[in-house]
From TrEMBL:
SUPFAM superfamilies with a match to the protein in the record: PLP-dependent transferases
Taxonomic superkingdom: Bacteria
Gene3D superfamilies: Aspartate Aminotransferase, domain 1, Type I PLP-dependent aspartate aminotransferase-like (Major domain)
NCBIfam families xrefs: am_tr_V_VC1184 (TIGR01976)
Annotated protein name in UniProt: Cysteine desulfurase-like protein
Matching InterPro entries: Aminotrans_V_dom, Cys_dSase-rel, PyrdxlP-dep_Trfase, PyrdxlP-dep_Trfase_major, PyrdxlP-dep_Trfase_small
Residue span(s) of domain Aminotransferase class V: 22-392
Organism of provenance: Micromonospora cathayae
Length: 402
């Protein structure tokens, strides 16, 4: 059946305020079931995790539910799901832990297309270990991340390859599967940043070949929490710094302090919400997620096509390149106007877009745009509409005629 955008939008209370939210890459609005789940958990009696009493058991169930939900979303097992406050924090934990095993002469490969959260933790860990950092470059004309360069970047001392599943700056989608095959052939591990990819279609981490994969719930209608997943056997071989009395089991070994149980209840609710995007979908939650996110992706592609066509028709608008098959994210500049000025002018009309470098530090430095204020980013999520795109384009046209 057609994607029921009216039904979908009704699930997001914040949309009633009337803003146009084209800043989903920085964080989506929260679905009503998530708000309800968090509220219900905060109203309930909760204790720190313990099998000895009811509120403690309830907290155990909430954590287990969140692990199971993320596992269904990503195609992994719950025992491999590490939960934490943000993708950045979790990646730093992993980088410190793996980096402690590196030695001078070892090598790490990072990409200039990535969000800095999948760059700087690895660069800093390499510097501490005396390891060498090697850089994968994007094609400035196509916006692609060529796979062929990895054959030259990888060697028998490569310990880790970090690569994004989708650029948060341009929407470019690298061939992660091909990159992981090359990395594994060289004996290297691969950490994939899925923060920008997971909201826009079904995810199968084993099919990608990722040894580690990170995602943030607030990019897919949920609360501000994240998850880093790996095979439980992979986690079992790693020893992070931790408090002596804290749990030494996997995955708890990598989670520091008492988690926010209400927000974890919201993670489960967010996954269930995504599994309900296609009301006709059947099967288990994993199957319903695949159906719902496939339908959402097809809908987003239609909205993105309208946006790209409209931007191409506007005088003075330059769109930063990305290859076909991009995620529904576009960065652009309006003539010589500072991106901050463009974003502020649109914001005054109730249109919300990000501007600057959005932490894609290496990308904007390499293009020379960072020193000029970066760009303006319009990111489409499944609650955006063609009518909203038309309003955005009309406002940009008005700015271009000034």
């Amino acid at each position: 059946m057609p994607f029921d955008i009216t039904r979908v939008r009704a699930a997001y209370p914040a949309l009633a305020e009337g803003h146009l939210h084209f800043d989903g890459a920085a964080g989506t609005q929260t679905a009503a079931p998530v708000v309800d789940a968090v509220t219900a958990a905060m109203r309930a009696a909760l204790g720190n995790r313990s099998p000895a009493f009811g509120p403690g058991r309830r907290s155990l169930e909430i954590v287990a539910g969140a692990r199971s939900a993320v596992a269904d979303l990503l195609g992994v097992v719950p025992e491999g799901v590490v939960l934490g406050p943000s993708a950045t924090a979790l990646t730093y934990t992993l980088a410190r832990t793996l980096g402690a095993t590196w030695r001078p002469g070892d090598e790490v490969v990072v990409s200039r297309l990535d969000h800095d959260a999948n760059v700087r933790p690895w660069v800093q860990a390499a510097e501490r270990a005396g390891a060498t950092v090697r850089w994968a470059e994007f094609d400035p004309d196509s916006g692609d991340l060529p796979v062929g360069q990895y054959a030259d970047l990888l060697g028998d001392r490569t310990r880790l390859v970090a690569v994004t599943a989708a650029s948060n700056a341009t929407g470019a989608v690298p061939d992660v599967g091909a990159i992981t095959k090359l990395a594994h052939a060289a004996g290297a591990l691969v950490c994939v940043d899925g923060v920008h990819s997971v909201p826009h279609g079904p995810t199968d981490v084993p099919a990608l070949g990722a040894d580690f994969f990170v995602t943030s719930a607030y990019k897919w209608s949920g609360p501000h929490l994240a998850a880093l997943v790996a095979d439980p056997a992979r986690w079992a071989g790693l020893r992070p710094d931790k408090l002596r009395p804290s749990a030494d089991t996997v995955p708890e070994r990598f989670e520091f302090g008492t988690p926010s149980f209400p927000l974890l209840a919201g993670v489960t609710a967010a996954v269930d919400h995504l599994a309900a995007l296609d009301p006709d979908a059947t099967g288990d939650r994993r199957e319903r997620l695949r159906a719902g996110l496939t339908a959402a992706r097809a809908y987003e592609e239609q909205v993105l096509a309208r946006l790209l066509a409209g931007l191409a028709a506007l005088p003075g608008v330059t769109v930063l390149p990305a290859p076909p098959g991009r995620c529904p994210t576009v960065s652009f500049r309006l003539a010589d106007q500072a991106p901050a000025e463009t974003a502020a002018a649109l914001g005054a009309e109730g249109i919300c877009l990000s501007h600057g470098d959005y932490y894609a530090y290496e990308y904007f430095t390499a293009t020379g745009l960072r020193e000029r204020g970066g760009a303006v980013r319009a990111s489409v999520y499944h609650y955006n509409t063609v009518d909203e795109v038309d309003r955005l384009l009309a406002e940009l046209g008005r700015l271009a005629r000034r």
